[in-house]
User: Fold this.
Amino acid sequence: MGDIYPDLARVLISEEKLQERVVELADQITRDYSDSDDLYMIGILKGAFIFLADLARKLEVPHIVDFMALSSYGQTTTTTGAVRILMDLREPIEDRNILLIEDIVDSGHTLSYLYKTLLGRRPATLRTCVLLQKERDALDVPIDYLGFSIPDVWVVGYGLDFADKHRTLPFIAELKPEAYEGT
Ligand code: IMP
Ligand code: MG
Assistant:
């Protein structure tokens, strides 16, 4: 993508497409939670912070926002499957209506771990909203609201990073393989 973004191969999802889809997801969630006055949205840091901020501002049901941080791939793009909580929720979620917001499902280990962990805290309901899912063999994880299915490539932007870079691009772009090969 020219001189400005030498690490990027192409734009996969434009800013307009992202914003359109966020509005559709917010409409769907608003309908599904129209009877609820205690929607508790949990964003997974850091990747979901932009998606959550946009989505929450389009919702027309009362909701509160909290965050969790997990251990991730560190500086690389290879997964070990091991997940650890680095920062937990501020409140118990027992008997509450939980909507988990995640940036991307790749192998499925992160979402699967989170789902089991939160279910163990006995919420009234637990649903998941995921912006991107890669088309690849992965653990079978429950996704209630999905933004987009994408090819099995490394993507950055709109919250997603590579070694903490490119996170605040307003679109989703594919990283050039040579930018992460060998890591
Ligand atoms: P999983 O546990 O393999 O499903 O990976 C999920 C986590 O890995 C996500 O929450 C992201 O933090 C990170 N991840 C996986 N694929 C990508 C990608 O293409 N770009 C940026 N982060 C990714
Ligand atoms: Mg993440």
